[in-house]
Amino acid sequence: MNDHDAASLSSSASTPAPRSRRRLALLVGSALAAAVLVAALAGRHAVLAPAPARDVPHLDGKSIRFSRAFAQRAGIELAAASTASLAPSVSVTGTVTFDPDRVAAIGARIDGRVRRIRKFPGDPVAAGDVLAEIESAALGTAQTGVLSARAHFEAARANELRETQLAEAKVSSQREAEVARATALVARAELHAAEQKVRALGGDVSPDIGVLALTSPIAGKVVESHVSRGQSVEPTQTLFRVADLARVWIELAVFEREVNHVRRGDEVEIIPQSNTSVVLTGKVAHVGDIIALETRSADVRVVVDNADGTLRPGQSVLAKIRTATTHGDAVVLPRDAVTSIDGRPTVFVAHDDTSVEPRVVVTGASDGTHIEIASGVAAGERVVVRGVFALKSEIFR
After folding, report:
1. From CA 362, how far away is CA 374, in angstroms rounded?
2. Is the confidence at residue 193, as pLDDT, over 80?
């Protein structure tokens, strides 16, 4: 063997044949594919593994069953229905209005033109204070008539006195004295009529002929003004509104199922919706005798002292009437024990500590904390009084 053959043999021994290389690549690829398949199967197995069951209530026939752990998490508490005397309370929204005895709408009663404005909204006024001055030709004519009638009366009165003295002195006849007396009586009647006409127009006899001083008939505050200087006014217009807001009314609309509990003199808590931290007190002054067909409610009026001006007419308030009517020996439950399912009042009556039954009940009066159960639950039966929402939300979605 020569040197060239030896080198060729050595090179063939150190380099694998092409078939061997292909076999090696196939073995490596198969191993990698097997590894990927195993990993994929392992991941799929992990995804498909069942999740642990949720600890939630479930229906068992007509009953709802739950675990003690769920009851502890949801804060479920049971208590027995009891009998007690219940003084119903009525909660309703209302509106603040003026006390009619303490508000005045003021107009001119005659045609005229505003000459001067003395008071503006927010200004305090006393009874008799001038709010505005109005020039009126009709008032001027009436005032002039008073002056003329007064002059006629004074002349007729003087003539009466003179004729009476002459008749007593036998200088003139008695008839002339009687005629003078009758003339004086007519002049007095004419003067009275002229003065009454001026008063009917809202004026009086003053140095400013034809000027009406528009005055406030009550003490209070100007709450509305609808005049401007130079404005023409008519008798039908309301130019000012003056009110004493130290006392106001609250107008309520109470449903017919509750109005029978309300009596005159019942105490009422008033909370302005704009500031629920404020609580005022008042009393029922009137309970309406008519049920409105559209709303099935009756008007209830509450009188409230408002010396500090907390309430404003037109304001919305929450009213809670604490009625004096009591329901003796009524079956009562905490108000939170009753929920609504399919539009019907329902409670959860307990069979044991981990099993309850939803039961439809008929409710009655409520004092805001407790509610009367007219039928559906007997005294002594245990019901869920806390955690009601947790049970309802899990079963009745």
Report:
1. 5
2. yes
The tokens for 331 are 């079956």
Residue 157 falls in which region: left (phi positive, over 0), alpha (psi -120 to 50) or beta: alpha
Tokens of 319: 């009213």
Enclosing H/E stretch for 82: strand 82-86
- Tokens at residue 341, please? 């399912």
Classify 368 as helix, strand or coil. coil
Is the pLDDT score of 276 beyond 50? Answer: yes
Backbone dihedral angles phi then psi of residue 134, each to the nearest 5 degrees: -125, 130
The whole-angstrom separation of Cα 227 and Cα 211 is 16
Q: What is the mean pLDDT of residues 263-267?
A: 91
The SS3 of residue 34 is helix
Q: Which residues are CB-neighbours of 14 under 8 A, at least 6 positions away?
A: none
Contact between 88 and 261 under an 8 Å Cβ cutoff? The reply is yes
From the list 369, 375, 259, 373, the residue with the least C-alpha distance to 327 is 373
The pTM of the whole model exceeds 0.70: no
Tokens of 203: 């004026």
Q: Provide the pLDDT for residue 25.
A: 52
* 384, containing H or E segment: strand 382-386
Helices (H), 15-67: 18-48
Distance, in Å, from the CA atom of 376 to the CA atom of 86, rounded to the nearest integer, reads 18
DSSP letter for 387, please: S
CA dihedral for 374, 376, 381, 382, sign (positive or negative): negative
Question: Coil, helix or strand for 39?
Answer: helix
> Whole-angstrom Cα distance, residue 120 to residue 240?
9
Identify whether the C-beta of residue 265 lies closer than 8 Å to the C-beta of residue 284.
Answer: yes
